[in-house]
Fold:
Amino acid sequence: MIEHDTALPAEPACDPRPRWTFVVAGTLAVATVSALALPWPLALSSIALGALMLAGADIDARYYLLPDTITFATLICGLAAALVLDPISPWQALLGALVRAAATASVLAAIRFAHGRLKGREGIGLGDVKLAAGVGAWLPLDQVPICFALATAAALLYALQARLRGRQMERTSRIPFGAFLCPALWLVFYTGMISA
Structure:
């Protein structure tokens, strides 16, 4: 399990903002691949999700924090996308997205709570739990585990690379999991829409 220690990040985290040049450049790339591969309603959804995930990944990578503005916007946009992208039964799609969001966040919250009780320290940040609700809102149930597996694999590769470069990596070393979960969410959504 990836753990976070309680030390403060090197940069102040009072009012984190993404690097807008990074977010704009990344969003233009997302817009290009989305417009070329997806019909317009899906492309717009992909672009909105991509912009949010770029901002979230950038902030978490630098501050070890996922702001509520990112996590709640991800959830709200996911619910709106469920409503708009299923014109045949939009209210059923919305209800399904709400149930998946609650279930995904609940599972991660339970893991967070259990880890805290067993280890006596935080192992998963609350922002990750809130982002998990967004994951559930955006993805079908069978794709949620794929998203978390992809994010976890990327985080483990990051830790391995850091260790190979000589950085001290202990069980309590901080890893900004949201920086990996954000791009994993967009990638799984995008590839799922292409193959649909």
Remarks:
- The chain is about 70% helix and 0% strand.
- The chain has one domain: 20-195.
